[in-house]
């Protein structure tokens, strides 16, 4: 087996050195009843050619996003990842290292995480950010739990514009961790401020919201703060912050976001990278790892994992979160992509996305039967169709167009949203793609 | 003066010659690298993007007004920056990485290649499922392998890492207990457990009740049985445990746990020791997470992403988190809602369907080894650890006698009266070109040194490591304390002041106030 360097001779020699009669002797502590006599019933070892063939066949059965006109978003966006990003994250020194517990030989990881934390703080308009969480949805649940700790309250108000998976993850954590949620109906006009009372730890809103609408939450922030509650702002399309006012300027106390759009592929939904930013005064309640600046024995600047007394390996059952492994390499991809973009590139990329969305919206508004729901949007918006959206999506998929996400995929029992379709574009969307979608929709709806 | 100290003295003399003050601050291949924010070159950009055709903004007056503050760098600058940073890292690719309980084994590049196939990387979780039969097939195949290897009938695939898998497991247990109207409040956790275990149990609303170890480094069964009762929800046990030992009485422990009406959760971080040789189901385990980034070789990536699927018994399976993949009449189906067979599911634990990128890598790893090769993995991992144990037993202090599994635990008794600590010893290993072992964990022995070589180290590599550790132990005993206290001295940075970092946290770069004023 090509990954196993011991030879039969080595094994014999090593057993002698150990003083064991056989390899089985080293497994003597295993109860006899549980010892398997031979290999389990699975295929035997395969060479690289064979494995590549088997897995490639599975891959070939899927429709890759890049092979068709593609308009799916809903919290995961198909952006261009510059070639340098994937090359650099595959350097073995990044790819095959562990959590940087030995700072003297992990300055590479620690420095990029410090850069990542700074980028996330700058983008969101917040003061401080952590070194990543699993994904946006779990970051959202962690934000609610942190708000509970900060306020000493246990009730969160969730906007109906919150991504349904984020809401469901909050519901799961809420049931077992022990907090209450008051969730609004999706797709309706709402006023979460009305629900804020003295027991509310936080209000969780999303910007742009799940239906793509961009909102100003400054007033809501004030209401929250007046009631001693925190405002949590979720961002599922982090690129939007290259074009719209950041949550920090709207008065957010915690920003939890999905960072996949920068540097990371679709990956069928994972791995992605959770971003988490807040105010300096809450830093000791933050979940997950933090990298801090310090000096070494010679007084030179360097970086270490810090404030680890919040974390499970020190604090055990009193930790702020049980998280350990997070999304280091995805955070690196994010950092490299954003370093390449810089201020000018990010804002230009955001403009391109918005321009493509405006162009698509103007085209779809011309299609009889299609009604645009958004007043304000970034690169994604919702349309009402004259037929159930799920059916239209299937018909268009058969025609080779992946038209968007039917809202009913998330709310199968809610008839009020059955005709809603969520449509997203990015800089990868071409004019021809838009032509194809418009033509296919016209054909299906005529 | 023995050979080692002569060698060190000679090298220290060399170092004096080498450690000259350079104009740049660089030391040969060790390059000082500023933060990207300090390399901002106005007008530079690492991408070339087109200008959109004129359009009417639909941002409704919510346009960003302020600068973000991101630096501008060209592509060559960015590539050089991150390449230089990479060179400040230790990695499996550069050497033996004997971190106990982390299974730092070789990461095959075939797996990286396959995870990047457009049909697997460039697919969206919300595409119509009719366009994704291969994705469901791959996940179902992975589930089949994991079920066969654990002997457990169900697999929850969505957890994003080991600790997330623990949450999934303890939530499933609580859901099962609640479904039978059984309110229990305690979870038993051995003192040797990973910190994530008590943190997880506490997060799920349980009181953590610690179980001591016995003199052999295993769970004190009498103490455990005395703590079992009608209010105990679960036992969380790592097996092989964090001392690198197999819990010999695990079947009796499982029986006692079940007699008390509780569930048996196993932390599968150390599955590498037994994969292909022992099925956890045969030990009486109800629920176990698997770290795909340990046993199944998906890269650690400097701290993630991981993947922590959870194998579940038949009694816990109905509560598994969403989504589920089930065999429909003609094809695989994805159940995304609490309905039908998934009516009692505990719900969703993360966005979308799990860490697909890690699933691809883990499946490629498993298929490459096959059932025979995976068995060999466990055997070689155990053999390598025992070889280190046998060869170092007289130089370091073994915490517990007898064969170990995939990792071997030493403590700091051999450093008694030397003035050298476990930390010092670890830092001296760094100067020798090795990543240290896990230090000060598990907590049940003093100054722990937990060494896990993994099966992908050759005998020659182990022999070199053994020679270095022996020489360092001899140096410590010979009183060369200063050498250890000063270590590491050959790294891009020497020991870092962690106390100062925590006292006054600096967690992000900010522009120099002088420069900022000048700019204004």
Report on this model:
The complex is a heterodimer of chains A (446) and B (520). Chain A has helices at residues 8-18, 48-60, 83-89, 92-95, 107-124, 136-151, 164-178, 218-226, 312-315, 328-364, 389-398, 431-445; strands at 128-129, 155-158, 180-183, 200-206, 230-235, 254-258, 274-278, 291-295, 301-305, 371-372, 380-384, 405-406, 420-424. Chain A has 446 residues and is an alpha/beta fold. Chain A folds into two domains: 65-80 and 342-445, Aspartate Aminotransferase, domain 1 (Alpha-Beta Complex), CATH 3.90.1150; 83-337, Type I PLP-dependent aspartate aminotransferase-like (Major domain) (Aspartate Aminotransferase, domain 2), CATH 3.40.640. In chain A, the strands form three sheets. A seven-stranded mixed sheet of chain A has the order 1-7-6-5-4-2-3, with helices on both faces. In chain B, helix 3 packs antiparallel against helix 10, helix 5 runs parallel beside helix 10 and helix 6 (162-179) runs parallel beside helix 7 (196-203). Chain B is 35% helix and 10% strand. The radius of gyration of chain B is 26 Å and the shape is globular. Chain B has a seven-stranded mixed sheet with strand order 1-7-6-5-4-2-3, sandwiched between helices. A four-stranded antiparallel sheet of chain B has the order 10-11-13-12, covered by helices on one side. A two-stranded antiparallel ribbon of chain B has the order 8-9. Chains A and B meet through helix 1, helix 2, helix 3, helix 4 and helix 5 of A and helix 2, helix 3, helix 4, helix 5 and helix 6 of B.
Keywords, please?
heterodimer, A: 446 residues, alpha/beta, Aspartate Aminotransferase, domain 1, Aspartate Aminotransferase, domain 2, seven-stranded mixed sheet, four-stranded antiparallel sheet, 12 helices, 13% strand, globular, B: 520 residues, 15 helices
- CATH topology annotation of the largest domain in chain A: Aspartate Aminotransferase, domain 2
Percentage of β-strand residues of chain B: 5-15%
Number of helices of chain A: 12
The CATH topology label of the domain at 110-365 in chain B is Aspartate Aminotransferase, domain 2
- Note the gap between the termini of chain B: 63 Å
H/I helix tally of chain B: 15
Low-confidence stretches of chain A: none
User: Shape of chain B, please?
Assistant: globular
| Major beta sheet summary of chain B | 7 strands, mixed
CATH class of the largest domain in chain A: Alpha Beta
Mean pLDDT of chain B: 94
Strand sequence of the main sheet of chain A, in spatial order?
A: 1-7-6-5-4-2-3
Largest beta-sheet details of chain A: 7 strands, mixed
How does CATH name the architecture of the largest domain in chain A?
3-Layer(aba) Sandwich
Q: Any idea what the radius of gyration of chain B is?
A: 26 Å
Task: Please give the oligomerization state of what you see.
Answer: heterodimer
- Helicity range of the residues of chain A? 25-40%
Written as H for each helix and E for each strand, in order along the chain, the element string of chain B is HHHHHEHEHEHEHEEEEEHEEHEEHHHH
The CATH homologous superfamily of the domain at 110-365 in chain B: Type I PLP-dependent aspartate aminotransferase-like (Major domain)
């Amino acid at each position: 087996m090509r990954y196993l360097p011991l030879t039969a001779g080595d094994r014999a020699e090593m057993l002698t050195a150990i003083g064991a009669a056989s390899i089985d002797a080293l497994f003597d502590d295993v109860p006899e009843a549980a010892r398997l006599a031979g290999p389990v019933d699975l295929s035997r070892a395969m060479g690289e050619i064979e494995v590549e063939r088997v897995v490639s066949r599975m891959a070939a059965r899927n429709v890759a996003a890049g092979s068709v006109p593609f308009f799916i978003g809903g919290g995961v966006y198909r952006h261009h990842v510059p070639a340098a990003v994937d090359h650099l994250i595959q350097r073995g020194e990044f790819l095959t290292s562990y959590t940087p517990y030995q700072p003297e030989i992990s300055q590479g990881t620690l420095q990029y995480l410090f850069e990542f934390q700074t980028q996330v703080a700058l983008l969101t308009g917040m003061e401080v950010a952590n070194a990543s969480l699993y994904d946006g949805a779990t970051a959202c649940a962690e934000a609610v739990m942190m708000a509970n700790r900060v306020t000493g309250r246990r009730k969160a108000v969730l906007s109906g514009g919150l991504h349904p998976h984020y809401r469901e993850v909050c519901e799961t954590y809420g049931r077992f961790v022990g907090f209450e949620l008051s969730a609004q109906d999706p797709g309706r006009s709402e006023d979460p401020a009305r629900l804020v009372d003295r027991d509310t730890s936080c209000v969780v809103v999303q910007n742009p919201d799940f239906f793509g609408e961009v909102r100003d939450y400054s007033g809501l922030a004030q209401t929250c703060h007046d009631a001693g509650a925190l405002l949590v702002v979720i961002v599922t399309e982090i690129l939007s912050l290259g074009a719209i006012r950041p949550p920090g300027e709207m008065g957010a106390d915690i920003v939890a976001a999905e960072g996949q759009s920068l540097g990371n592929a679709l990956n069928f939904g994972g791995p992605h990278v959770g971003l988490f930013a807040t105010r300096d005064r809450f830093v000791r309640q933050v979940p997950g790892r933090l990298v801090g600046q310090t000096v070494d024995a010679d007084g030179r600047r360097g970086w270490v994992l810090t404030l680890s007394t919040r974390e499970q390996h020190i604090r055990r059952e009193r930790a702020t979160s049980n998280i350990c492994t997070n999304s280091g390499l995805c955070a690196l991809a994010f950092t490299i992509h954003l370093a390449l973009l810089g201020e000018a590139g990010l804002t230009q990329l955001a403009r391109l996305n918005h321009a493509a969305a405006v162009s698509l919206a103007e085209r779809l508004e011309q299609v009889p039967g299609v009604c645009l729901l958004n007043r304000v949007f970034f690169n994604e918006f919702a349309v009402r169709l004259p037929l159930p959206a799920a059916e239209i999506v299937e018909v268009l998929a058969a025609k080779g167009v992946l038209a968007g996400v039917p809202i009913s995929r998330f709310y199968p029992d809610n008839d009020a949203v059955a005709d809603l379709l969520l449509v997203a574009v990015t800089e990868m969307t071409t004019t021809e793609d838009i032509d194809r979608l418009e033509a296919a929709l016209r054909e299906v709806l005529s | 003066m023995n050979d080692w100290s002569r060698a060190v003295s000679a090298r220290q003399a060399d170092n004096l010659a080498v450690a000259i003050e350079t104009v740049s601050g660089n030391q040969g291949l060790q390059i000082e690298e500023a933060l990207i924010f300090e390399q901002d070159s106005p007008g530079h950009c690492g991408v070339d993007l087109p200008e959109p055709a004129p359009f009417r903004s639909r941002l409704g007056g919510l346009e960003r007004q302020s600068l973000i503050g991101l630096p501008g760098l060209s592509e060559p600058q960015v590539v050089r920056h991150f390449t230089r940073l990479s060179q400040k890292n230790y990695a499996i690719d550069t050497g033996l990485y004997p971190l106990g309980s982390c299974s730092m084994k070789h990461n095959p590049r075939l797996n990286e290649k396959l995870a990047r196939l457009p049909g697997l990387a460039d697919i969206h979780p919300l595409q119509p499922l009719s366009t994704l039969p291969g994705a469901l097939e791959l996940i179902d195949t992975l589930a089949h392998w994991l079920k066969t290897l654990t002997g457990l009938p169900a697999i929850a695939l969505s957890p994003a890492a080991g600790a997330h898998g623990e949450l999934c497991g303890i939530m499933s247990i609580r859901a099962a207990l609640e479904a039978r109207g059984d309110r229990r409040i305690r979870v038993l956790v051995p003192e040797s457990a990973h910190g994530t275990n008590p943190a997880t149990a506490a997060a799920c609303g349980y009181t953590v009740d610690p179980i001591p170890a016995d003199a052999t480094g295993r769970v004190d069964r009498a103490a455990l049985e005395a703590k079992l009762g009608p209010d105990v929800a679960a036992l969380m046990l790592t097996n092989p445990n964090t001392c690198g030992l197999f819990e010999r009485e695990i079947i009796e422990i499982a029986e006692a746990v079940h007699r008390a009406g509780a569930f048996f959760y196993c932390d599968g971080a150390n599955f590498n020791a037994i994969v292909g040789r022992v099925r956890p189901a045969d030990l009486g385990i109800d629920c176990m997470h698997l770290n795909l980034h340990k046993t199944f070789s998906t890269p650690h990536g400097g701290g993630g992403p991981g993947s922590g699927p959870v194998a579940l018994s038949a009694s816990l399976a109905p509560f598994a988190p969403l989504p589920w993949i089930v065999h429909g009449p003609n094809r695989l189906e994805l159940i995304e809602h609490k309905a039908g067979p998934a009516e009692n599911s505990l719900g969703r634990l993360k966005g979308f369907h799990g860490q697909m990128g890690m699933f691809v890598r883990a499946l490629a790893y498993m298929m490459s080894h096959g059932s025979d090769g995976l068995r060999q993995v466990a055997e070689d991992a155990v053999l390598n650890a025992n070889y280190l144990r046998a060869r170092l037993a007289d130089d370091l202090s073994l915490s517990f006698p007898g064969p170990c599994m995939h990792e071997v635990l030493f403590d700091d008794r051999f450093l008694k009266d030397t003035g050298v600590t476990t930390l010092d010893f670890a830092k001296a290993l760094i100067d020798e070109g090795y990543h240290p072992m896990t230090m000060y964990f598990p907590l049940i022995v003093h100054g722990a040194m937990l060494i896990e070589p993994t099966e992908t180290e050759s005998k020659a590599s182990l022999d070199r490591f053994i020679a270095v550790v022996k020489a360092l132990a001899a140096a410590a005993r010979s009183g060369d304390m200063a050498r250890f206290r000063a270590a590491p001295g050959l790294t891009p940075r020497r020991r870092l002041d962690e106390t100062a970092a925590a006292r006054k946290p600096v967690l992000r770069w900010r522009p120099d106030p002088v420069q900022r004023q000048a700019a204004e």
